[in-house]
Design brief:
Elements: H1 2-18, E1 25-29, H2 32-40, H3 43-46, E2 51-55, H4 60-63, H5 66-76, E3 81-85, H6 99-104, E4 109-111, H7 117-124, E5 129-136, H8 138-154, E6 159-166, H9 168-178, E7 185-188, H10 190-196, H11 203-208, E8 212-214, H12 219-235, E9 240-242, H13 254-263, E10 264-271, E11 275-284, H14 293-296, H15 313-317, H16 349-356
Parallel strand pairs: 1-2, 1-7, 3-4, 3-5, 5-6, 7-8, 8-9
Antiparallel strand pairs: 6-11, 10-11
Helix pairs in contact: 1-12, 2-16, 8-13
Length: 367
Amino acid sequence: MQEKQKTADALLRRISELHTPGERVRLMEVCGTHTVSIFREGLRQLLPSGIELVSGPGCPVCVTDQVYMDKALEYAKRDDVIIATFGDMLKVPGSYSSLSEAQTQGAHIHVIYTPLEVLELSKKHPDKYIVFLAIGFETTIAVIGATVKAVAQAGVKNVLFLVSHKLVPPALRALLDRQVGQIDGFILPGHVSVIIGEKPYQFLPDEYKIPSCIAGFDGVEILSAIVNILEQRKSGHFEVGNTYHSVVMKEGNPVAVRMMNEIYDVCDDAWRGIGIIPNSGLQLNDDYAFLDAEKVLPIQLEKPSLDPKGCQCGSVLQGLIKPNECPLFGKACTPDHAVGACMVSVEGSCAAWYKYGFSSGGLAWED
């Protein structure tokens, strides 16, 4: 512990050396685990006042679009369907309800802990379709892709996938292209980068001349990434930094990437509160279309999809406002009664600000 403290102190001294007093530097992390770690370790309070850490679209539950949730709820109405989902999707609000509310009204919703559980569910309920809510970034995509393959190879006929996978690099490009907020560097996600490696981020230094660095998850690892980004800014030599070499290889995980390319096609996709981002999603390709819920069991939404009134998730996800600047935060919107998806997941920006913010001085609201 003493050694770690010494390392942290040295990194903080280096950050102070690299930062020009009075200069405002905004660094965006795009990983929910980083968001939580920054709060838990109290990093905001340790940095020079001019360096601001802002949270981007790094939580897969948070960016899941309203229309997708409405489709999931439409499937949940069917007596011949069992929804299989990760638990943090239950409270994500749709336009008119949530999976949790649908469950209390008799919908068949089963919480799973690993995607492969859908195979056991299919055996227990051969008379029903198991519709798995396949969301997530590249890390989860690889695992779900393996499940898609397993279902196809097993010849299982009653497992389907409602897909809304999201890709991180196109979202970063979209944030920079929109020029809606100051972003001076990216703290890049560790888990996603384990899969895709460094190359997919190369457009950041090449096209936008902006520094970035792949980071691990404890305080020292995040501080190391901040030092790397500030050194790039100081030298004017921009690259995709990587201070998480022990886990993230330059080429990522080629086996996982090949499998993803085998199963999915890239498509445009909608991000909650942000809109359509080109080439930011994945859909099952023609070879696996027989497992696509929307193609096997087409549905039509009875009502238009609506964003929650007053919810500022889109602005939070783009780093335009802090969670506590949303008028609903801590009042109408709490973890027990979430209005927006950013308050649902433990990795959501709003949930992290609510849980950790007061103790680390991050919130401007009081009980």
